[in-house]
From TrEMBL, chains A, B:
Species this chain originates from: Pseudomonas schmalbachii
UniProt xrefs under InterPro entries: HTH_LacI (IPR000843), LacI/GalR-like_sensor (IPR046335), Lambda_DNA-bd_dom_sf (IPR010982), Peripla_BP_I (IPR028082)
Claim: DNA-binding is one of the keywords in the record: yes
Gene Ontology MF, one: DNA binding
PANTHER family linked to this entry: HTH-TYPE TRANSCRIPTIONAL REGULATOR GNTR, LACI-RELATED TRANSCRIPTIONAL REPRESSOR
UniProt xrefs under Pfam families: LacI, Peripla_BP_3
Annotated PROSITE patterns: HTH_LACI_1, HTH_LACI_2
Protein name: LacI family DNA-binding transcriptional regulator
Domain HTH lacI-type: 16-70
Length: 343, 343
DNA sequence: TTGTAAGCGTTATCAT
DNA sequence: ATGATAACGCTTACAA
């Protein structure tokens, strides 16, 4: 047939395809593909012609076709338990900042601290054949664990290190952080110490565990001073739990909160009740959220390296994806005690 | 060839395909496809066999193949200016809650209040051929605007209504909200009123505009009492701007903050300086973030219907996608003045 | 270095 | 109601 109707390479409707770019550049589609991806060796002159044509046409590769043909997408899936905690938002930002420049899309999955939701997200996102996975912590369903393993897709675990033997993980020891909190409060001469935690994910529990062990070592652990609730962490909840604790155990002289929002709520409630912080009760938060240093009194907190965790985890994943040597599989980024006015 | 090697339908490696499901159910692939999608009419008995086979195999459709074949993905792209503002996180949650049950993936794009970033995200996400688009506000590059229009993909605009003639939008009038803020402060007998805004996106500006117009109408507008900065909104910044305002204009007796975090910072700074709120200065915030009602004094704020905006916008988009009748193209969800202790 | 041919897994189209 | 066939747009062989 001489007539070019239905000729793919000259179609003028819809988005431009690789065929059209190739035709305009006077090369074969595969050469255009190679030139645009910068792989293989394409003569610089041809490559330039292709890039030119693509740009003139406003060509953007069809990710579906690409993923189908190569059995690989350009996406990386990141699963976090919450977006209401600034912690994860900051981590996500850092991840973006290293992955986007590499041409990778970042698929964000929020599983709301629910293992089932996480499992579903993993199943769904795995179907996209992502290049890599960034997961939070080690706590998940058996089924989710198996899917990840069976997929063979590179995966880096963020936030915790304590049970990550054999896995690539970037974070800090939640146990040690809890212990550091206890030691700090102890060093302030406080001995009736409480731990207040919400959400009750693995990491909150681990922090409490580290805190408890340190107190036991110091011989002043009192199980009655552990206040835990599965309710989501919030400023309002922090105030409530603070009140409850003071009512039931008025002798408490130091409190470690599993997250800064709880501690902030306690500070606010203390002000309302005229409870002197830190004189009557020392308050220590966790994560050092941006607003904490502006509280009255300024909140002491344990600063966690959330940006660094995101960045390093993404970098490690990149190395894994590209088959480059990965340094330490377990990256301990530590934490920093910020002593301010509340403790 | 009698030998079945390379027979697609019996391959046992990698993820199961539609072919394998079909073979196991004893039907053709297209019937399996139809049964699984619940479209067209497939005999209930066959459909059941297919579902059974799929479930046994743990079949999950390949979204790339699906998108390529149908020229449509199952994704909806949502673009927000920030995730650091709880406002957008709550909106996203609501969107998820209506779209996920419909089998739609939600692609989150954070453009950091940058028009260029937004344009890039639009270009990228459009390549995925999403079923719909959820955008924030009306402020974007010409190029972005054209891409959206040319794509023909259904789009709903969130948050603002003031310049959305002819578009599907769900939100409230930022102008009216600003005016309401002024009227409230005026009704409290305050006349030296300031507006403090950060980030300077369209909506912040519009709020200021509404506030200003109301003051002009009341005959007490003073341009010196408008403090604007492009820096990102935060508690720390709120404290700074509050100090700056008091230093340069000690006579101010009421301040409207463009976002609650700024107002919270002001409250905290006021406490530090011994400035009585609301006696010396009334403080009114915006958005009514969850922690605002726990501030000391409790922060008065304008509560914006962020969850409802997300939900209704998603529902409207769904209607558009399914070609169902859309009610009002412009949905005004209003706002609510929460008068607490700070004003 | 470039191109040809085939196929990735699904759905649209058109038969039956 | 079900199926055969041909795309969808790209990339992986492999060949030249």
């Amino acid at each position: 047939m001489a007539s070019p109707k239905n000729d793919k390479s000259t179609r003028t409707t819809g988005r431009p395809t690789l065929n059209e770019v190739a035709r305009r550049a006077g090369v074969s589609p595969i050469t255009a593909s190679r030139a645009l991806r910068g792989v293989s060796t394409v003569a610089e002159e041809l490559a330039e012609r292709v890039r030119q044509a693509a740009s003139e046409l406003g060509y953007v590769a069809n990710p579906a076709a690409r993923a189908l043909a190569s059995a690989q997408s350009h996406a990386v899936a990141v699963l976090v338990p919450s977006l209401s905690n600034q912690l994860f938002v900051d981590t996500l930002e850092a991840i973006h900042s290293v992955l986007r420049p590499q041409g990778l899309e970042v698929l964000i999955g929020n599983f709301h601290y629910s293992r089932d939701e996480e499992e579903n997200l993993i199943r769904n996102y795995l179907a996209y054949q992502p290049r890599g996975l960034l997961l939070t912590g080690f706590e998940r369903t058996e089924s989710a664990r198996r899917m990840v393993e069976a997929s063979g897709i590179p995966c880096v675990y963020m936030m915790d290190l304590d049970h990550g033997a054999g896995l690539h993980c970037v974070g800090f020891s939640q146990l040690s952080a809890g212990a550091a909190a206890a030691e700090h409060l102890l060093s302030r001469g406080r001995h009736r110490l409480a731990y207040v935690g919400a959400q009750l994910d693995q990491r909150t529990l681990l922090r409490g565990e580290g805190f408890r062990r340190a107190l036991q070592k110091a011989g002043c652990y009192d199980p009655a001073l552990e206040l835990l609730t599965p309710r989501p962490s919030s400023v309002g909840l922090g105030g409530e739990m603070f009140s409850q604790l003071l009512a039931s155990h008025p002798q408490v002289d130091g409190i470690f909160f599993g997250n800064d929002d709880l501690a902030q709520g306690a500070l606010l409630e203390a002000m309302r009740r005229g409870v002197k912080i830190p004189e009557q009760v020392a308050v220590l938060g966790f994560n050092d959220l941006p607003s904490s240093e502006f509280m009255v009194p300024r909140l002491s907190s344990i600063r966690t390296p959330r940006e660094a965790i995101g960045r390093r985890a993404a970098e490690q994943l990149l190395a894994l994806i590209n088959g480059k040597p990965v340094g330490e599989p377990v990256l301990d980024l530590g934490f920093e005690l910020k002593v301010r006015e509340s403790s």
